[in-house]
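User: For my dataset I need records formatted as: sequence, then structure tokens, nothing else. Please produce one.
Assistant:
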Amino acid sequence: MQRMGNYLVIVFVFIISITAGKAQTNQLFGDTLRIQLDSAESIFLRNNFQILAQRYNVDAQKALIIQAKLLPNPNFSFGIGPLNSLYDPLSIYPNSNFFTNNELTPTISQLILLARKRNKQIKIAEANAKLSEYQLFDLIRTLKYTLRTDFFNIYYAQQSAKVYDKEIKSLQQVVNAFNQQQGKGYIAEKEVIRVKALLYSLQSEYNDLINQINDTQSELRLVLQVKNTYIQPIVDEQKLAAINPNKYAITTFIDTAYKNRTDLQIAKANNNISKLNYEYQKALAVPDLTASLNWDKQGSYARNFYYVGVAMDLPFFNRNQGNIKSAKSTIDYTTASQKTVEAQVEEQIYRSLQKAYDNNKLYQNIDPSFFSDFERLQNEVLLNYQKRNIGLLDFLDFYDSYKQNVLQINAIKLNRVNAFEELNFYTGTNFFN
């Protein structure tokens, strides 16, 4: 008997600690943000630091296009001498020094890029800028998918939490009534233990669910970049119920994906860049030309001697063979990568559409009056148990069945919505909102 009393004390302390922990958790958040999905997406696009950083990267890549268009700067060199005084009786000017009868050799030269290297550099810079834009759009697509799935996960988890909260409050009333009748012999002690054990179990499951919600809340707050806020999603259930996967043909999904999937566009852009780089590496095998204009004051056979010159590397040893071979192999790599993504596109759409069909069919089988009937019966069962019209086993069995059915229905609804969100993600378009 003493052991059983200690067990009751442990249960009671556990309930008190969870209640106190919940109150402490609520104090961590300064405000509750009740928000719809479209408003959440607007906040996300405006505040997310990852998107902001990628936009800066796009600007940086576009600036490199300007740099690629610039011509090489001309080179100017200038020589003067002698540094020490010279005497040569055979010279026209026997006495010369740094300031008198000196030698001047100014030269101006210009590098001329051959084999259309500059044009190829511009095309590579433009392709890299386009790639950075695709990377920005793919980041937005990925983060938006995280936002939308977290949004619905939190919503349906909160709906399930309401069931736990309601059952816990109802059982707490029964426990309070038992406590008032304690010692009078009206209620068997094993019955009190069973009810309190059920309450303990619900409290534990409820605490796990709250932790799950808080983990998802943390991820969603990072995506939205909102601090010290508890997010409460607002969902139009009737609008979600009207969504039909049969509204669009599968060819529409596939064609849209090939047009809008940013990861596929990134694969194509990388393949294009590798081809442009291959052409550029072949152009680098052609030596560039340096043209120069020179003036020699008096060091040549004639005074004030003007002349022009050209210079070019001789491609005897280094014809850029290694870089050309590497660039050609890179084309094969990026081509295979692009084909891999293309193969994934159709398979992912087929699978996500199949899940949408299956989950929508399962959802359609739910009786619309289920919740109202169960809630009415729950109140009646609680009242009849308090009046001792039904036994403990029937009472506990109903409560467990009610909880399990509500959780299952919420899971069906969530799986259905997530299937539609997968289709949005894999097509790169919000077909379902």
